[in-house]
Design brief:
Elements (H helix, E strand, L loop, with lengths): L3 H6 L11 H21 L4 H9 L3 H26 L8 H15 L6 H14 L3 H25 L8 H24 L13 H15 L7 H28 L6 H15 L10 H11 L5 H31 L6
Helix pairs in contact: 2-12, 3-13, 4-5, 4-7, 4-10, 4-13, 5-6, 5-13, 6-7, 7-8, 7-9, 7-10, 10-11, 10-13, 11-12, 12-13
Length: 333
C-alpha cells in the first residue's frame, strides 16, 4: 500500500495541479510590467512631472479632446460597416454610444467587460442577437489591426522610423495572416440566419455558434470590409495627432513620426495584461518611446498621462450622459 507522500509524488489525489499556461503567462507579464515600471520610476522627479502637467497649454488640450472624439467616431464607423449587413437600420449614433459606454466600462472593470457592455448596449437598441454582435466585435478587432498593420507597412516609405519597427513588421504580418485565415475558415458562407430552435444542450450550443458566425457576415461583403478598413485608417491617423497634440501641450516640438512611434509603443505595451483602463501600461509605453528620442523621463511620463486623460475624461463624461439619458428613456438612438 502506498504511503501518502508516494501518492503525492506520482500525481495522486493529494498532488497539486500544475498551474495552467494562462496563469504562467500572467505571472510573466506581471513580472515584466513590474520591471518596466521600476525602470520608469527609478530616479523620477515627481515634482517635475507635476510642474510639467500644470504647465500644459489648454488650447492644445482642447484640440486633443476634439481629435480623440473624432477618432472614436471613426472607430464607431469601422464597427458599423461590419454590422450593417446584419442590421441595415443601425445608425452611427447607436454604434458611437455603444463604443463610448464600452470604453468607459473598460476603464474601471478588468477583462473584457467593456466589450460586454458594448454588446449589451447595442443589442438593446438594434434587436440583434448578442452572440452575433459578439462575432462582429471580434471582426472589428481584426479590422482595427488591419488599419494599424497597413499603416506600419507603408510608414517606412513616408517617414523615418526606428529600425525595430521595420524589423517587427514581418512578424506582425505573419500573426495577422494567421488570424485572418481562421476567420475566413469559420465565416458563414451566406447571411442566412441560424435555426430558431436547438434541441438539447448540443443544439443550443450549435445555435449560439451559428449566431456568432453570423456576426462575421461582413466578410462576405467587400464594400462593407473596405468601408471598415478606411474608417480604421482614419481612426489611427487621428490617434497619431492626438499624441502630437499632447506633446504640443507640454512644449515638445517633434515631427509626426515621433507621435507614430509613441502610438506603436503604446499599443505594444497594451498587449501586456494590465489593470483596468490600462492605467500605467499606456504611460509606460509612451515613456519608453519618448525617452528613446532624448526626451526627459519626467516630461515623457507627463505626455503619457495627458494622452491617457484625453481619452478617459471625455469618454467617461459622455458615457455618464448617455447612460443617464437612457435611464430616463431618451437618447436611445
Amino acid at each position: 500500500m502506498a504511503e501518502e507522500g508516494e501518492v503525492d509524488e506520482v500525481g495522486g489525489e493529494g498532488a497539486a495541479p500544475p498551474p495552467p499556461p494562462r496563469v504562467l503567462l500572467r505571472v510573466l507579464a506581471g513580472a515584466a510590467m513590474a520591471g518596466a515600471l521600476f525602470w520608469a520610476l527609478r530616479g523620477l522627479d515627481v515634482r517635475t512631472v507635476w510642474a510639467t502637467l500644470a504647465g500644459a497649454r489648454l488650447g492644445w488640450l482642447a484640440v486633443g479632446v476634439v481629435l480623440n472624439l473624432g477618432a472614436v467616431c471613426f472607430q464607431a464607423g469601422r464597427w458599423l460597416a461590419l454590422v450593417r449587413p446584419l442590421a441595415p437600420a443601425a445608425t452611427l449614433g447607436s454604434a458611437f454610444k455603444a463604443m463610448v459606454v464600452g470604453s468607459a466600462v473598460s476603464a474601471v472593470v478588468p477583462a473584457r467587460a467593456g466589450d460586454l457592455a458594448r454588446m449589451q448596449w447595442f443589442a438593446r437598441r438594434t434587436g440583434l442577437p448578442r452572440a452575433s454582435i459578439a462575432g462582429s466585435i471580434v471582426l472589428d478587432y481584426v479590422v482595427n489591426a488591419v488599419g494599424l498593420l497597413l499603416g506600419l507597412a507603408v510608414l517606412p516609405y513616408f517617414l523615418p522610423v526606428p529600425a525595430w519597427i521595420r524589423r517587427s513588421i514581418g512578424g506582425l504580418l505573419i500573426a495577422f495572416a494567421a488570424v485572418v485565415t481562421l476567420i475566413l475558415v469559420v465565416r458563414p458562407s451566406t447571411d442566412v440566419a441560424p435555426p430558431s430552435r436547438g434541441h438539447g444542450v448540443l443544439g443550443r450550443v450549435r445555435k449560439a455558434l451559428a449566431r456568432v458566425r453570423l456576426g462575421l457576415a461582413a466578410t462576405n461583403h467587400p464594400r462593407a470590409l473596405a468601408g471598415s478598413i478606411l474608417s480604421s485608417l482614419g481612426s489611427w491617423t487621428l490617434e497619431v495627432y492626438v499624441i502630437a497634440a499632447a506633446m504640443k501641450a507640454l512644449g515638445i516640438v517633434a515631427p509626426v513620426s515621433t507621435a507614430v512611434v509613441v502610438l506603436i509603443a503604446v499599443n505594444l505595451a497594451l498587449a501586456i495584461p494590465g489593470p483596468p483602463g490600462n492605467i500605467g501600461t499606456l504611460e509606460l509605453g509612451a515613456t519608453v518611446a519618448l525617452v528613446g528620442f532624448g526626451v526627459a523621463k519626467e516630461k515623457a511620463l507627463a505626455v503619457g498621462v495627458v494622452y491617457h486623460l484625453l481619452q478617459l475624461v471625455p469618454i467617461g463624461l459622455l458615457a455618464m450622459l448617455f447612460v443617464g439619458r437612457a435611464g430616463k428613456g431618451v437618447g436611445y438612438g
